[in-house]
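User: Quick sanity check before I run a bigger batch. Here is a single chain. Can you write out its predicted 3D structure?
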Amino acid sequence: MKLACFAGLALASCAATKAPEAASEEHAFGLPPVRGALEFPADAHEVTLGWLVDELARLTGQELTMSSALRAQLDSETEPLEITAAVPAREVYAFVEAILAVQGVLIAPVKGGARPVLAVQGFADAGRPPGEILAVPIELGLVEALAGHPALVCQVMLVLENVDSRQLQTELRQLLSDESGVQQVVPAGDRGLLLRAPGAKLLGLVRALREVDRASAARPETEPAQPPNAPPEVPTAPRPAGE
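Assistant: Done. Predicted structure follows.
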């Protein structure tokens, strides 16, 4: 009888704690978890980027900070919706960030705690000094998780084992650096590179550089070229006396 009561209490407890849409797990980039699914208005065919960031703020409990020019731009830019199915909580960051990143809009957390603040920055801020673009410093071990954060600006230190970072820096700067200061490549010593870019792009860059580093290690070392032998000296006939 007691076992039946305990079993009934356990089942009741599970039923009481089960939610239709579980909140996403805590993120490792200073971002609070998402509390529920992203649901679109009934019969909506499009939404503004402003609506998307507002919903992200509401579902995560974050306060948004951005320039007035960017706020106006977000409220005027629309995103068509092919389907209006709800986005599960675990996919909300990736969904919203993917749409923002395509439009050149980026995010970065400013503070956490009970009242977290999220900075939204993008095309309307292109004229800002590079130092004002916010980025999240992360450990190299967290890079793979950036696949779900296309619009999150991050920076990471990558140490190469077989390539001189100063040789790569010039080429990478031409490919990545921009006037806004969002994407940067800064050498740190002989083997280190401080990389800064939106999350998914940063992940691809780290993977590519690691592959280059591995390929350099596998390449056989070649002997340095020897200078050609000097031609033998031709003996000259002695000069007659008196000359």
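The CA atoms of residues 37 and 89 lie 4 Å apart.

User: Great, the batch can go ahead then.
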